[in-house]
Known about the structure:
The protein has a domain at 18-181 and 223-250 and 286-301: 3-Layer(aba) Sandwich (Rossmann fold). The protein is 40% helix and 14% strand. It has 10 helices and 13 strands. NADP nicotinamide-adenine-dinucleotide phosphate is lined by residues 22, 24-28, 47-48, 52-54, 74-78, 98, 117-119, 175, 177-178, 184, 191.
Amino acid sequence: MSNQQTFVPAPLPRDAKVYIAGHRGLVGSAIWRKLEAEGFTNLVGRTSKELDLKDRNAVFEFFRTEQPAYVVLAAAKVGGILANSTYPQDFLSENIQIQVNVMDAALDVNVERLLFLGSSCIYPKLAAQPIREDSLLTGHLEETNDAYAIAKIAGILQVQAVRRQHGLRWISAMPTNLYGPGDNFSPKGSHVLPALIRRYEEAVETGASSVTNWGTGTPRREFLHVDDMADACLHLLEHYDGPQQVNVGTGSDVTIREIAETIASVVGFTGNTEWDTSKPDGTPQKLLDVSKLREAGWIAGISLEDGLRSTVEWFRANRSSLRE
Ligand SMILES: NC(=O)c1ccc[n+]([C@@H]2O[C@H](COP(=O)([O-])OP(=O)(O)OC[C@H]3O[C@@H](n4cnc5c(N)ncnc54)[C@H](OP(=O)(O)O)[C@@H]3O)[C@@H](O)[C@H]2O)c1
């Protein structure tokens, strides 16, 4: 495979039709907001009820009717450690079906630019830190989310295969852990940061004297605000063209313990934090090497503290309508 890449500015026409698959999700909704704010006038989205992306015929029909010029593939079955390790078959099968259907249908109508979103869990569990893009497929995956990771790796390969076989300038981006308005705060399906926000917020509400978190608190993680992620996605669509997936992150990490302490302070929890070390920690460190993204001309702009404050505010304002 040619690894040739370019960083040529190529602004997308603001009146072009852009389909955002998963436009109500954390990432999709942020991309929708970003594109609207940037003057895009022809955005298309469908909820999973309106268009189940596992339904291949319906997806083809949708693409033939709508004929989008650009596609952002932010629809996926997404979850934290618990959901991933409990339902690996669902995560593997549903994600592969969604991706294959959307990409095959996009190819069918010759979509010029498609951005596929994966996740940093595609990289080997013990990849050298910070994780470079070329460490993909060089070692074993973290077992708790290997099924999800394999589905995402298949997506990256499909983007590369389409480029090679059909010459379409599709690209892939691999975000680090994301957070922000619109996140999933469900006790069963959430990622670590929204789970911690909910737990500490509920402890304040109930007057609990202590909070217990999973694991040792020592794993290091990187967190990117989803509005920064959306900004990076548009930047890549307008500036990056290459077969290799691009890491999207801040370039710095914190321990889970540190993030828990910051959240406790932001929500005003003054009790004790305990760590249930019988529960799994997951990968010891996950920090993306973001040199390629920087080379493409983008850096994160929202600090963790500011991002957490606005996310807690959003959580408080939307308590009655959170997804379960
Ligand atoms: N959250 C993170 O920390 C993170 C980190 C790295 C990468 N990512 C990647 O970013 C992408 C989006 O993640 P997210 O966090 O935004 O997830 P999310 O908030 O759970 O949103 C996922 C979206 O996918 C849609 N969807 C799921 N199954 C569908 C189906 N069968 N048919 C149609 N739509 C379906 C849902 O639509 P409805 O709402 O209409 O049901 C939902 O809006 C994923 O590829 C994920 O791997 C996320």
